[in-house]
Specification:
The structure is a single chain. This protein is an all-alpha fold. The protein has one domain. It contains 4 helices and no strands. Helix 2 runs antiparallel to helix 3. It is elongated and about 35 Å long. About 25% of the residues have low confidence.
Length: about 90
Amino acid sequence: MSIFPWHLLGIDPTRDEGAIQRAYARKLRRCRPDEDPENFARLVDARKSALQRMAKGSIGEGPGQRSGRDARRDSLSRESDAPGANFQHR
């Protein structure tokens, strides 16, 4: 399991569809497709991936993976290496 969708959406792994949709909506306000199509596409992919993982129940911890606060803390330390790291907040 990668941290890709959760990191880009700015939330911990969750099975709460509403939390995923709210996080997507918050990020969407700052990322316009006409101004930044690359990061917009990443955001859409992150939402889709998070919803797919939620539906499959595959958001849990895998071998060698961390979840919850540990994964979020680790992801923040690797922020510049993550997809969408150049995502600019407006």
